[in-house]
Amino acid sequence: MVHFLHPGHTPRNIVPPDAQKDALGCCVVQEEASPYTLVNICLNVLIANLEKLCSERPDGTLCLPEHWSFPQEVADRFLRVMTWQGKLTDRTASIFRGNQMKLKLVNIQKAKISTAAFIKAFCHHKLIELNATAVHADLPVPDIISGLCSNSWIQQNLRCLLLDSTSIPQNSRLLFFSQLTGLRILSVFNVCFHTEDLANVSQLPRLESLDISNTLVTDISALLTCRDRLKSLTMHYLKCLSMTKPQILAVIRGLTCLLHLDISDHRQLKSDLAFHLLQQKDILPNVVSLDISGGSCITDEAVELFIQQRPAMQFVGLLATDAGTSDFFTTKQGLRVAGGASMSQISEALSRYRNRSCFMKEALCRLFTETFSMEVTMPAILKLVAVGMRNHPLDLPVQFTASACALNLTRQGLAKGMPVRLLSEVTCLLFKALKNFPHYQQLQKNCLLSLTNSRILVDVPFDRFDAAKFVMRWLCKHENPKMQTMAVSVTSILALQLSPEQMAQLEELFMAVKELLAIVKQKTTKNLDDVTLLFTLKALWNLTDGSPAACKHFIENQGLEIFIQVLETFSESAIQSKVLGLLNNIAEIRELSSKLVTEDALKHINSLLCSREMEVSYFAAGIIAHLTSDRQLWISRDFQRRALLQDLHAAIQNWPSSSCKMTALVTYRSLKTFFPLLGNFSQPEVQLWALWAVCHVCSKNPSKYCKMLVEEEGLQLLCDIQEHSEATPQAQQIAASILNDFRMHFMNYQRPTLCQMPF
């Protein structure tokens, strides 16, 4: 049976021995690296299309098709996934009315639903567990209890009720749990739960596990009422407790059936209750789990003696104490320790305290120190960091420390061994933290640093549009040069991953282009051909690729003038090829190409046409091919156009085979920019360059570009060249070579209408 996991609930929460822990870590890796289960895929599709698949009732709520029916296990999971995705509302919860869904284990944590929707959707089912942790204030605790008690079956059989961080109206005083006679597990952590409520709860005939952490209880004496049945008591941070320590210890001494006791506290409060408890010999004879994290004056010797007197103990919580460093804690077989003295203790703390921000922050701080020079991939630990980030989205210390730990765990080559799904989750959580804390610069730096990881930036799914906005805003902040270089390099890669439509929607694009041009101008003025200049030129090149908006911003911010200055200042081919690559992007846009038809620009472009560096000559030729193909640009200077075409033809004749290797990798989002040139039979030089370019990319990356030729319907143009009487023999030869590449890589592709190609 599936149960809710909740810190402090024993015996369920007693963690297995060390050998099982290693197996658990392997399970995390396998789960994250494995494909989603078919059930989860189906449920995700169903939830995404719920509005389409369901009909609407007169009250505006959704109703499942009449013939649909879900088994209990699937119905429980369906609800859990809906809740996880934030899709559970008054409108959608109505699908759980009636008997089409049979629920037992209901999880509605953090859901925003009303009392009426809760009662109609869930209180007629035969529930044995309800997790209503942190539900919206529209569904207060008294209404939850009242709804559950409206079903006599639930009264007698509900076993587990989790109400952590739920609200109670100010006018409510006493919570009536007494009708839930079957209740075994109750958690009211961080609830306005009073001493009178504790007295009421203590009367429950089957109560075995109780969590009253961070409540308003002042006296725990009522617990003696259930001394013969209470096995687990969690009372972390009982800030209002007014009893003396001897009185508290007397109550604990009376709870002889306790297997688990949690009296952990915030370290700042310097509570010494745990210190005094450890001195008692006649207390907790059957305990197997004791949590005293955050307690003051705790020593290794005292804890060791206490455990030796109770050899059945399996867990002790020592985080934020002075204990835990003794060899005893690593050598005692079967003992788990949540602490900060070793990676094993930190891992246990992260797992056990995932819902307690004070201890999560402490564990993350210890983890950061432990992983600062990490050389081993630890996906199970990264998963626990992600859980902490997800559970405490508005806690800045947790988010900041977690982001630093995530960096340590994924730095350099460590990310290569991490499952993509896990890296995606962590990256998305980092961006969520950025939105919650937009003005905290160190958190932003950590996020930017994570994006410089090539594994994350290239392979991991995340919202690249949001990432581009963040990085471009950072770029314009004029931060220190090192961070600026990182922002530029990330911008360069993200630019290629956005569609032209997304580029057009980027409000930050104008400022980013302006800032990048300012960097280029500064470097050029100082004659600095460093890595930042190369990254910046590459970023501008990629930003303008297929983006008329970016090209327009480039021209409007004197980009052409700055780039001509770059060509006049630097002679390195790595710089020249990037400059010419961007100018190619400008030349492809008819509305802007005229800006390149100036004496100054054409002089530099034509001079580089004869460069010994293949990629420089190639990009210079591309600019000339695009510009000369538009005769309207040359109405009064046709002689110059024809001279450029002659130079273009001569340059291409001097090039090696189109399958040659270039220093700069040539890539294209689309081949459509070549299509007008391929059909230009009146200017064979232009057509020849386009054919050479298409042949080059198809020979280098046939799986991408041969497929692109099909999808963009470019094959017919190549067939036309083969058959056209005005095509030159050289053009026909290159076209045939491209089609042959196509045949080799798509042997089973049948397109008999295209040149009757034999396959």
TrEMBL record:
Highest taxon above the source species: Eukaryota
InterPro entries, per the entry: ARM-like (IPR011989), ARM-type_fold (IPR016024), LRR_dom_sf (IPR032675), ZER1-like_C (IPR055142), Zyg-11_UBL_adapter (IPR051341)
All residue ranges annotated as the Protein zer-1 homolog-like C-terminal domain in the record: 388-741
Keywords from the named record: Leucine-rich repeat, Repeat, Ubl conjugation pathway
One GO cellular component term: Cul2-RING ubiquitin ligase complex
Matching Pfam families: ZER1-like_2nd (PF22964)
Protein family per UniProt: Belongs to the zyg-11 family.
Cited PANTHER family: PROTEIN ZYG-11 HOMOLOG A, PTHR12904
Protein name as annotated: Zyg-11 family member A, cell cycle regulator
